[in-house]
Write a structure and sequence with these properties.
Four Helix Bundle (Hemerythrin (Met), subunit A); 154 residues
Length: 154
C-alpha cells in the first residue's frame, strides 16, 4: 500500500477534508458573485460597467464599496490565506505516515474550524470569536508541518 492510495485510510481522510475545503473555497467565490447580483453593487472594475447580459443597466454607483459584497471577498481572501497551506501541508503530513487518529483529528478539526470561521464571519460576530477559529486552524497546520519536520529528522 502506498501513502497516496485509496487503500490508505489517512489519505482517504486527506481527500475528504481537501475536497470539502476546495468546495468551500470555490463556493465562496460564487457567494461573492451572488451578493453582487443580489445587491446590484460591489463591482470592482471599470469594465464591469459596460452594458451586457449580466449588467443591463450599468451605473457608476455600482462601483461603490459594498460591505455586503466586501465581507464575502474578505472571507474568500482569508480562505486563500489558509486553505492552500492546509492542502499542501496535509499531503506531506500523510506522506510521513502519522497515526490515523492524528490525521483524523487534525484534518477534520481544521475543516470544522474553517466552516465555523465562515459562519462566524458571515454573521458579523466579534473579532475574538472569528480569531479563535482562525487560530485553531492555523495551529493545526503548524502542528502538521512541525510533525513532518520532526519525522524527517528521525
Amino acid at each position: 500500500m502506498t501513502e497516496f492510495s485509496v487503500q490508505n485510510p489517512a489519505f482517504v481522510t486527506y481527500m475528504i477534508a481537501s475536497a470539502i475545503m476546495i468546495l468551500k473555497l470555490m463556493g465562496q467565490g460564487w457567494m461573492t458573485v451572488f451578493r453582487m447580483i443580489k445587491s446590484d453593487a460591489g463591482l470592482l472594475n471599470p469594465e464591469d460597467l459596460l452594458a451586457g447580459p449580466a449588467n443591463r443597466n450599468p451605473r457608476p454607483e455600482q462601483l461603490a464599496r459594498s460591505d455586503y459584497v466586501d465581507r464575502s471577498r474578505r472571507m474568500q481572501r482569508n480562505d486563500l490565506e489558509n486553505i492552500p497551506a492546509f492542502l499542501a501541508c496535509g499531503l506531506i503530513f500523510v506522506a510521513v505516515k502519522p497515526p490515523l487518529i492524528w490525521v483524523e483529528i487534525f484534518m477534520y478539526t481544521f475543516v470544522a474550524t474553517r466552516l465555523i470561521h465562515t459562519l462566524v464571519y458571515a454573521t458579523g460576530q466579534r473579532h475574538e470569536v472569528r480569531a479563535t477559529f482562525y487560530t485553531i486552524g492555523s495551529l493545526i497546520v503548524i502542528a502538521m508541518a512541525i510533525w513532518v519536520l520532526l519525522a524527517l529528522l528521525r
